[in-house]
Specification:
Elements: H1 2-18, E1 23-28, E2 36-42, E3 48-54, E4 60-63, E5 68-70, E6 85-91, E7 96-101, E8 107-111, E9 116-120, E10 136-141, E11 147-151, E12 157-163, E13 166-171, E14 176-177, H2 189-192, E15 196-199, E16 205-208, E17 213-218, E18 223-229, E19 241-244, E20 250-253, E21 261-263, E22 271-272, E23 281-286, E24 296-298, E25 303-306, E26 309-310, E27 314-320, E28 326-334, E29 339-347, E30 351-357, E31 364-372, E32 377-385
Parallel strand pairs: 4-9, 14-18, 26-32
Antiparallel strand pairs: 1-2, 1-23, 2-3, 4-5, 6-7, 7-8, 8-9, 10-11, 11-12, 12-13, 15-16, 16-17, 17-18, 19-20, 20-21, 21-22, 24-32, 25-27, 27-30, 28-29, 28-31, 31-32
């Protein structure tokens, strides 16, 4: 009986893996104003997945500083289910969603499993409801696993880190315009305010303004450089959310009731996803990074494995190369050279997007080796499993 049960268990496990969602959304209602609805998972095609926590959900709020439950004033802007939520990041250290109300300096951490919310009070973020310049509208996880947030005008660049299991907030300084930005100013309402941000594997940040302008922010120099404007969007599309998906592409979303789009930073050409066409999304978050392709010896430019830092037991193999056909073999070796995982995969029409379950690999460094049927090496890449 057991030998029949084993493949059934594998099949069920495979279905669970395929159903995993990569991106989280802070969604709103169909309303002319900002009106929070829920936090939800999003599918790769731009359709809504599971609702995680909503405006009417029962919320247990724990103050980090007081280490006790608190009751918040829901007639104010300073509460965990405020209608003006517009900044979201994913904290992989605890499978938490970190967010801020637009008109508040409060930081909240939602535990997806327990639904308990931690209130992080801070005096570092200077936010007032009447000052649009001060509103925190962009937030993401950096490659160093800290959370980063930027207000509309760039006068506060916040780092939210974890020390001794407590969230600590630091102001990294003022972000200024690159001298070459000209009319595409990072600090102008028309060209630079609102939107969202993502990170790359060098811990640089890319801010996607509501206007569709994209700026690269250097953390060392605190300079925002205009790199271009997104093309291919529908007229008057408002860019309000941005996140990196499992393929390493950027996904953007709008609060105005529209579809999600996918694009590459290389050309900023947006392609509409096939999912829902009336989404109201104020912010997006994920655990992935742009250009997360270090330590790779890659024969084919359109064959890759990511992420290189694995905080869950999954990696992704992406192939988009018409010259590759038939079967390929994926092997994973530990640092001693011992094979710890082997899997055969089939490429159809030069395309493959496969999630690989790493089973019970312990934390440490590994080499992912991919070969064709003849044994020719197609890719060797180092990954780091962190838990």
């Amino acid at each position: 009986m057991k030998k029949h049960l084993f493949p059934i268990i594998l099949l069920l496990l495979g279905n669970t893996i395929n159903a995993q969602q990569d991106i989280f959304a802070l969604a709103g209602k169909d309303s002319p104003r900002i009106e929070f609805s829920d936090f939800r998972a999003m599918n790769a095609d731009g359709t809504s997945g599971q609702s995680i926590f909503g405006v009417s959900s029962e919320a247990k709020i724990i103050s980090q500083s007081r280490k006790a439950s608190v009751v918040e004033d829901k007639t104010s802007y300073n509460h965990a289910q405020s209608m003006t939520l517009a900044a979201l990041a994913y904290d992989s250290s605890g499978d938490n969603l970190v967010y801020m109300p637009m008109f508040s300096s409060n930081i909240y951490v939602l535990n997806q499993k327990t639904k308990e919310i931690t209130l992080v009070e801070n005096t570092v973020a200077r936010v007032t409801s009447c000052d649009i310049n001060s509103h925190i509208t962009r937030m993401t996880t950096g490659y160093d696993r800290n959370i980063y947030a930027i207000n509309n005008s760039g006068t506060q660049f916040l780092q939210i880190s974890k020390k001794n299991n407590q969230y600590v907030v630091n102001d990294l300084g003022i972000i200024k315009d690159d001298a070459a930005n000209g009319k595409n100013s990072f600090t102008s309402i028309e060209s630079g305010f609102g939107g969202d941000m993502i990170a790359d594997a060098e811990n640089n940040f890319y801010v996607f303004a509501t206007s569709g302008n994209v700026f690269k922010v250097s953390t060392k120099e605190l300079i925002a450089k205009f790199i271009g404007k997104i093309s291919g969007l529908t007229e008057n599309y408002s860019v309000n959310g941005a996140a990196v998906n499992s393929k390493g592409k950027v996904v953007i979303a709008s609060a105005k009731g529209a579809s999600m789009y996918e694009l590459s930073l290389e050309n900023l050409e947006a392609k509409q996803l096939s999912g829902e066409s009336n989404l109201h999304i104020y912010d997006l978050a994920s655990k992935y990074f742009v250009n997360d392709r270090t330590s790779s010896a890659n024969v084919f430019a359109n064959l890759d494995v990511y992420p290189t830092k694995v905080d869950e037991h999954f990696i992704y193999l992406n192939v988009n190369d018409k010259t590759l056909k038939g079967n390929i073999k994926l092997n994973i070796f530990d640092i001693s050279g011992k094979a710890v995982l082997a899997q055969k995969l089939s490429i159809k029409d030069g395309n493959l997007n496969q999630q690989i379950y790493l089973k019970n690999l312990v934390a440490g460094s590994y080499i992912v080796n991919i070969t064709d049927d003849s044994g020719k090496a197609l890719l060797n890449k180092k990954i780091l499993v962190t838990k």
